[in-house]
Amino acid sequence: MIRDIFSFFLSETTKKRSEKIILSIAIASFVIHLILIFLVDSKLIYLESSLFDSPIAAIYTPFSFILLYEVYLVIYYLPKSITTYIGKQYEIITLIIIRRIFKDLSDLKLSSSWFEIKNDLQFTYDIIASIILFYLLYLFYRKSRKMQEVPLKIINSNIDSFITFKKAVATCLVPVLIIIAVYSFSNWISALINPEIMIGASFKNINNIFFDEFFTLLILVDVILLLASFYYTDKFHKVIRNSGFIISTILIRLSFSVSGLLNTVLIVGAIVFGLLILIIHNKFEEELNQNMI
Q1: What values do phi and psi take at 150, rounded to 5?
Q2: How far apart are CA 61 and CA 71, in angstroms?
Q3: What sign does the dihedral 101-60-210-72 (CA atoms) show?
Q4: How many other CB atoms are there within 10 angstroms of residue 293's CB atom?
Q5: What is d(CA 143, CA 157) in angstroms, rounded to the nearest whole number?
Q6: Dihedral angle, C-alpha 195, 200, 204, 210, nearest 10 °
């Protein structure tokens, strides 16, 4: 039963089909956003959001759908590889910053007092952070691939059971995240149409919509996987790696509750922490493999 549901939601065929569908939706949403900006600019309709002030801001919408596909990839890779699963989380927060840059571009005020304007400062933080995060992602995946090339000397006979458990968790996540996404989007639309009935504090910052709940859910999932992993391994470096990745996800989640420089520092710090955890874990793994030769 679980296997059939997993194949329906998270098979390679479903992944490719989802990629095409979301790409088509992203293109259509970009066109629709441009039309809405034109209608707002022509005073034909009124929408309370800075997303409709400039055509540059229209890029924000297709990026949002690309991010949803990245969310799907997080779930897709959960049963396959812990490092790829974590790497996809890092990709998401990096893309959120890139998306925020497009939004901030429409609010830039080019003046000699650049460093005194809040939006201009945030844009500066995001530009620098995006370059740093891109390079950190390169290092993270490089270290991840290097570890995968090390031949395993011992194969845990229970590993198949753990993979089956992770598939069950991933399968349950799909409908839950769909519900959260639909709920968050519908609430935002309601708040956009009727600004006086702002539904939640998270909508005060449009960049937080859905993703603060998403990372909260990931923390819970990571803790469940950590506890379940004790049934299959008691290796200290594995436990520390998995615990470290949870801390990294928590730091990312905390970044949604703050703004400005602290937001950027938390995000960069989260990925630096995850990268260092992976590097130290790999050193442990290499040492163990050398001792077995």
Answers
A1: -75, 120
A2: 16
A3: negative
A4: 5
A5: 26
A6: -120
- What's the residue count for the chain? 293
Alpha-carbon dihedral of residues 189, 55, 91, 205, nearest 10 degrees?
-40
| SS3 category, 1 | coil
**pLDDT of amino acid 15:** 87
Q: Over the chain (293 residues), what is each successive 10-residue block's mean pLDDT?
A: 70 87 91 90 76 79 86 90 92 91 73 68 89 96 73 53 85 87 76 56 58 89 88 81 94 90 94 95 82 60
Question: Nearest Cα to 274, choosing from 88, 131, 90?
Answer: 90
For residue 177, CA distances in Å to 93, 138, 223, 248, 274 come to 17, 28, 18, 21, 24
Q: What is the pTM of this model?
A: 0.83
Q: Is 143 exposed, middle or buried (0-12, 13-18, 19+ CB in 10 A)?
A: middle
Beta-carbon contacts of 238 under 8 Å, excluding residues fewer than 6 positions away, are 229, 281
Domain positions in the chain: 2-292
**Token digits for 289?**
């493999």
SS3 label, residue 194: coil
What distance in Å separates the CA atoms of residue 241 and residue 173, rounded to the nearest whole number? 23
Q: Under DSSP, is residue 80 helix (H, G, I), strand (E, B) or coil?
A: coil
Give the integer Cα–Cα distance in Å for 217 and 256: 14
Instruction: Give the separation between CA 163 and CA 85, rounded to whole angstroms.
Output: 13
